[in-house]
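Here is a typical protein record:
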Amino acid sequence: MKSNTLSLIRSSMGAMSKGQRRISEYILTHYEKAAYITASKLGEAAGVSESTVVRFAGELGFEGYPEFQASLRESVRSMLTSVQRIEMTDEMIGDGDVLERTLSADMARIKMTIESNSPESFEAAIECISGAKNIYVAGARASSMLSDMLASNLNLIYANIHHVDSSSESSVLENLIRIGEGDLLIAITFPRYSKRIIKAVTFAKNRGARILGITDSMNSPIAAVSDYLLFAKSDMASFVDSLVAPLSLVNAIIVAISRRNKDELAATFDKLESVWAESEVYEKGTDNA
């Protein structure tokens, strides 16, 4: 994957043929559409043949049009407004069944997430969580659902968990005011990347804390300053992003940590079950035999 496909196209235009420049001009002007159409449709829009589009991708250093398109999508996704995302829904789904297309895409993202993380990098992240003096978990906007789930479950295992309030920039920094050496910030952000989380990472890093970044790729603004990185594939699902794969990654982290602390966790839940029973939190099961 090229780090920024749009920049690559701009810098390469001087050496391109007339047809390739027409493709480049269309992409740079209509990037929100170009990233989600086939080579045939891109050629038609730019007034060139499909084979010219395929050669164009190869000239830029990609193995084929699918790799080029994936890299272009990654480059432009954080640039798209919600209105542009809505407009692109029909291009992504086409005439197919919405349920089948959406769920199939999520399954593909989970597979890519598995391939994007080595067992070694995952184990290193778990070791870092296990050895941290204090653990801060931060995610904003859509990613706040992920940070809430991770922090809530880690809180059942450890007593040193701090869920960062991301409702404003000031609240983020106030929640991190005591972070320092020996501490860990788990920062979660996916396109469109939250400035609050980027600032939280910089703030924590400057105070000597380690950073575990949970994001989509090395192009993420938190990747370069993270000590540990775990990747999950998210992509557009209309005006919202699909967070199925990121949620699966969070689940894997919780499972790995719980396996390391199963005795303490069992004792905690034994106490909780008594509290839940006294408070009648859950409906009692029935024997239907």
User: Anything to note?
Assistant: The domain at 5-109 is CATH 1.10.10.10 (Arc Repressor Mutant, subunit A).
